Task: inverse folding
């Protein structure tokens, strides 16, 4: 009998101890498999311009430190291609970050996105390496002559897929006017045909490193991130300066439009990046938190550390459609 009582007492105390441990864990969260960081969890799909690969990788890492329950999947492509994955291929994405705010305006609004936050700038440059042909003599003043040398090869991205592609052709036109060389734009455009044209500008980095090409039209930030030499183009050519907006508008490039078989004309303007959350974002709560982090002081520092001046306050297209969680973070509409 005494043994039976002892066994019952042990079982009772054991049950009480187990209940205490489980209750402690449920209150403190210790030992419980639950997402941290305010309960944010799930997959976050980010479509983004190739030129944002490095800074968004850093932004994503910092964001996941705060929200380890989130699995981030980033897909880099030309900004126009990113938009068409949503509009034409019916792909789902939580965030789209474009190298040109007009991509979102022209291809996604209003059917697939109803707001657009302009957040950063950049400028065009020409990247090269110490092994590039005529690397020792190329300058801001003679680069167009160097690129027309029959022995020199250069690459650029596809205007229909990537803003850097149509911006490269705008640079050709602005350079013709700036250097006063008649026919320069046509000659640069025609050289090589499509041999060294790729869907996005970062696709050409491997060709540059392998010496398949000598020069590459690319954003200055990307050249800096990859430790490449770069020719700094004059403001009259580089699409950087808001004060030269009127001059930039003289450069035009025809690209594919929203519907198959349609075309639009892109006019030159100071380059501005943007970010949006598509209407059919599967994980909208996490998307809003990610964009909020991008716009926060830590996010801005990461973007600027990677060579892109941040616009502050940002400008918003469709400000009335901004999620409530983002309204306090932005400073203007358009």
Result:
């Amino acid at each position: 009998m005494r043994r039976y009582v002892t066994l019952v007492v042990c079982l009772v105390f054991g049950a009480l101890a187990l209940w205490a441990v489980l209750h402690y864990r449920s209150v403190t969260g210790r030992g419980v498999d639950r997402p941290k960081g305010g309960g944010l969890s799930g997959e976050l799909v980010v479509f983004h311009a190739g030129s944002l690969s490095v800074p968004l990788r850093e932004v994503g890492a910092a964001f996941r430190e705060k929200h380890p329950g989130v699995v981030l999947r980033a897909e880099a492509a030309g900004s126009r291609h990113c938009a068409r994955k949503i509009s034409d291929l019916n792909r789902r994405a939580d965030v789209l970050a474009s190298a040109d705010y007009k991509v979102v305006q022209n291809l996604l609004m209003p059917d697939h996105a109803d707001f657009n936050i302009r957040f950063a700038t950049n400028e065009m440059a020409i990247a090269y390496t110490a092994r590039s042909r005529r690397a020792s003599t190329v300058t801001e003043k003679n680069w167009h002559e160097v690129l027309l040398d029959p022995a020199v090869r250069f690459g650029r991205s596809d205007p229909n897929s990537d803003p850097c592609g149509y911006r490269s052709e705008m640079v050709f036109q602005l350079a013709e006017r700036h250097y006063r060389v008649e026919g320069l734009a046509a000659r640069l455009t025609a050289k090589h045909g499509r041999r060294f044209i790729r869907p996005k500008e970062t696709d050409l980095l491997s060709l540059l490193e392998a010496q398949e090409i000598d020069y590459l039209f690319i954003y200055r930030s990307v050249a800096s991130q990859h430790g490449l030499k770069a020719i700094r183009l004059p403001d009259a050519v580089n699409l950087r300066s808001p004060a030269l907006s009127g001059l930039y508008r003289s450069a035009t490039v025809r690209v594919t439009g929203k519907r198959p078989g349609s075309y639009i004309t892109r006019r030159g303007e100071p380059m501005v990046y943007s970010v949006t959350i598509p209407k059919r974002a599967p994980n909208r709560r996490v998307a809003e938190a990610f964009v909020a982090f991008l716009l926060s002081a830590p996010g801005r520092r990461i973007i600027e550390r990677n060579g892109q001046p941040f616009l502050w306050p940002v400008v918003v297209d469709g400000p009335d459609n901004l999620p409530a969680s983002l309204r306090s973070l932005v400073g203007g509409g358009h």
Q: What stands out?
A: Residues 1-37 have pLDDT under 50 and may be disordered.
